[in-house]
Structure formats: C-alpha cells, structure tokens
UniProtKB/TrEMBL annotation:
Biological process according to GO: intracellular protein transmembrane transport; protein secretion; protein transport by the Sec complex
GO CC terms: plasma membrane
Bilayer-crossing regions: 6-24, 58-76
Keyword presence, Transmembrane helix: yes
Protein name per its UniProtKB record: Protein-export membrane protein SecG
Membrane topology annotation: Multi-pass membrane protein
Protein family (similarity comment): Belongs to the SecG family.
Region (Disordered): 86-113
Matches recorded under Pfam families: SecG
Record function comment: Involved in protein export. Participates in an early event of protein translocation.
Species this chain originates from: Winogradskyella wandonensis
GO MF annotation: an example: protein-transporting ATPase activity
C-alpha cells in the first residue's frame, strides 16, 4: 500500500465525518442541543455545549481535510522531481522512419511503336 493510497483513505474518512457533522447541525442555530430540550439551563451531559462541539469539530475536520489533500500531493509519484518535456526537445524525440515507397511509374507515357 503506497503513501498516496493511505492519504486517499484518510481523506475519504475525514470527508465522510465532515458530512455527518454538518448534517447533524441545524442551520437556524438549534441543532442537536435544541432537540434534547436544551432551553436556557444546562442539561445532563452538557447538551447545551453540543453546538460549540459541533462548531469546533466542523472547523477541525475541514482544516484536517485541506491539510491531508495538500500533503497527499507530495506523495504522488513524480511530483517532487523535475520532469522535462520530451516533446520540446527535438534531439531526444524518437526519430520515426517513414516507409519507403517505390516510385510510381505510369505505363501510358511509354512509346509502344
């Protein structure tokens, strides 16, 4: 298993977690904390702070996803080396041999005396 494959698996996992965390949030600000009856008081298990946790985890996962994508670019084969274009170098280009065709003779131009 190459490094790029490991990064690719990690990127897919982090992207899936990011989608799950975003889908749990309520765009109106209620989110998971309001569904457990988080009115004005602190609930059992700290449900009032769930919005803060989801907010921080969203930012953390998004930052981690961007970092993994940038780091995976380093692990791509040939990304770190200098790659010269062989199309621009006429000396290095392979010489193609065109097939030699015999000259075409036209029989109608010969004298038939």
């Amino acid at each position: 298993m190459t490094n790029f494959t490991i990064f690719l698996v990690l990127i897919v996992i982090v992207a899936f977690l990011l989608v799950v965390v975003i889908m749990v949030q309520n765009p109106k600000g209620g989110g998971l904390s309001s569904s457990f009856g988080g009115g004005g008081t602190q609930q059992l298990g700290g449900v009032k702070k769930t919005g803060d946790f989801l907010d921080k985890s969203t930012w953390f996962l998004a930052t981690l996803l961007i970092a993994l994508i940038l780091l995976s670019n380093i692990t791509i084969e040939g990304a770190g080396g200098v790659s010269d274009s062989k199309a621009l170098d006429a000396e290095d280009a392979p010489q193609t041999q065109q097939p030699v065709t015999p000259p075409v003779t036209d029989d109608s131009t010969t004298n038939n005396d």
